[in-house]
């Protein structure tokens, strides 16, 4: 009995969290290989892959916006350690069967199709385009998932979009959270949207990529042994110009892969030290949801130039008392 009390005390104290904090892996890295202006040049690809092996990266998400960058994707996948789960996130879904064959043969594990809705008039076309692309990928033998960025257009039509997505046969459906203060999205809107998504029987795994959602879904957000948001601890992002960030949204520069090896940046960059030393303030530390939510998304606070010890600006629990 006494030993159980000691273990409980140890777990509550958070000391175990500190002990685990700077260990490498499990680690998810995302890399934006191309956009309309930049490409990660071929000469850096081998170095990035070597570093990822040393860092024991286990999931890589490659983002591609420019179809001309596919040769870069093939080269990258070829050099990546075979143990890494390889996800390709694509916005432009105009691919051919030939391209999908090459992707499957190259060792791609999952295709993540991004449903980006920019105007209400566009919704039906975009959904039809998505259905066609899913069919092509699935027929081509590639595991397929759908990612839906939650913007004001999607939130306005969420019911009907969910009903259509329910009938599309994919491995997984993910929702990426709204950017802070864009389109006037409030914490109440977010609460309603996450509640609706959680209650909707989609018939497939559904992930809401927002630590705040764990208050509704009960799912853990990232490894629970971290004392706050996992950015820079179990995730990292590389931009097309080579800049390394703690995650896709937290724009604290941690170095550049053109100047230093990625594994050296991961080990001791000043930006990552700063992010890893973040602790939650009193409100979050005492909150009943802290073990799931971890204090919410720090990128939102950073974007608003607010103290990163504060609760997430979209947290309905603290701002609306819900
Ligand atoms: S107060 Fe902090 S820990 Fe609690 S739900 Fe809000 S952001 Fe999460």
Report on this model:
This protein has a nine-stranded mixed β-sheet. With 322 residues, it is α/β, with parallel strands linked by helices. It has helices at residues 2-13, 15-20, 42-55, 70-79, 97-106, 123-139, 152-156, 158-166, 187-199, 214-217, 262-268, 270-276, 282-285, 290-293, 298-303, 316-319, and strands spanning 27-34, 57-64, 85-90, 110-114, 143-149, 172-176, 206-208, 235-238, 244-245. It is built from 16 helices and nine strands. Bound molecules: iron/sulfur cluster. Iron/sulfur cluster (SF4) binds at residues 215, 283-284, 287, 289-290, 293, 295-296, 311-312, 315, 317-318. Iron/sulfur cluster is lined by residues 215, 283-284, 287, 289-290, 293, 295-296, 311-312, 315, 317-318.
Per-chain topology:
Layout: H1 2-13, H2 15-20, E1 27-34, H3 42-55, E2 57-64, H4 70-79, E3 85-90, H5 97-106, E4 110-114, H6 123-139, E5 143-149, H7 152-156, H8 158-166, E6 172-176, H9 187-199, E7 206-208, H10 214-217, E8 235-238, E9 244-245, H11 262-268, H12 270-276, H13 282-285, H14 290-293, H15 298-303, H16 316-319
Parallel strand pairs: 1-2, 1-8, 2-3, 3-4, 4-5, 5-6, 6-7
Antiparallel strand pairs: 8-9
Helix pairs in contact: 3-4, 3-11
Iron/sulfur cluster (SF4) is lined by residues 215, 283-284, 287, 289-290, 293, 295-296, 311-312, 315, 317-318.
Q: Report Rg.
A: 20 Å
Q: How widely separated are the two ends?
A: 37 Å
- Average pLDDT works out at 85
How would the global form be characterised?
A: globular
Strand content: 5-15%
Order of helices and strands: HHEHEHEHEHEHHEHEHEEHHHHHH
Instruction: Indicate the low-confidence ranges by residue numbers.
Output: 8-24
- Determine the fraction of residues in helical runs and give it as a percent range: 40-55%
By DSSP (H or I, 4+ residues per run), the number of helices equals 16
Present as ligands are: iron/sulfur cluster
Structural class: alpha/beta
Main sheet properties: 9 strands, mixed
Instruction: Give the strand line-up of the largest sheet.
Output: 7-6-5-4-3-2-1-8-9
The total count of strands amounts to 9
């Amino acid at each position: 009995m006494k030993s159980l009390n000691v273990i409980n005390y140890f777990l509550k104290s958070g000391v175990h969290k500190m002990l685990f904090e700077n260990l490498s892996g499990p680690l998810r890295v995302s890399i934006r290989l191309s956009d309309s202006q930049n490409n990660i040049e071929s000469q850096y690809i081998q170095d990035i892959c070597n570093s990822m092996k040393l860092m024991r990266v286990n999931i890589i998400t490659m983002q591609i916006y420019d179809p001309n960058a596919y040769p870069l994707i093939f080269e990258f996948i070829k050099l990546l350690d075979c143990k890494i789960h390889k996800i390709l996130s694509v916005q432009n879904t105009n691919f051919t069967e030939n391209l999908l064959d090459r992707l499957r043969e190259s060792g791609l594990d999952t295709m993540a199709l991004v449903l980006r809705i920019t105007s209400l008039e566009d919704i039906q076309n975009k959904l039809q385009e998505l259905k066609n692309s899913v069919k092509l990928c699935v027929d081509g033998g590639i595991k397929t998932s759908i990612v839906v960025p939650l913007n004001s257009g999607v939130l306005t039509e969420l019911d009907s979009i969910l009903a259509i997505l329910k009938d599309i046969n994919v491995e997984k459906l993910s929702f990426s959270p709204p950017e802070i203060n864009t389109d006037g999205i409030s914490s109440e809107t977010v609460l309603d949207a996450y509640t609706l998504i959680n209650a909707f029987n989609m018939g497939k795994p559904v992930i809401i990529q927002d630590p705040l959602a764990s208050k509704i879904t009960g799912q853990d957000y990232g490894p629970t042994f971290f004392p706050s948001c996992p950015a820079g601890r179990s995730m990292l992002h590389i931009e097309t110009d080579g800049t390394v960030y703690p995650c896709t949204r937290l724009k604290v520069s941690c170095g550049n892969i053109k100047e230093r090896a990625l594994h050296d940046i991961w080990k001791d960059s000043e930006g990552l030290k700063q992010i890893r030393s973040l602790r939650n303030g009193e409100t979050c530390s005492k909150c009943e949801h802290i073990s799931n939510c971890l204090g919410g998304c720090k990128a939102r606070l950073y974007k608003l130039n607010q103290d990163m010890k504060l609760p997430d600006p979209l947290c309905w629990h603290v701002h609306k008392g819900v």
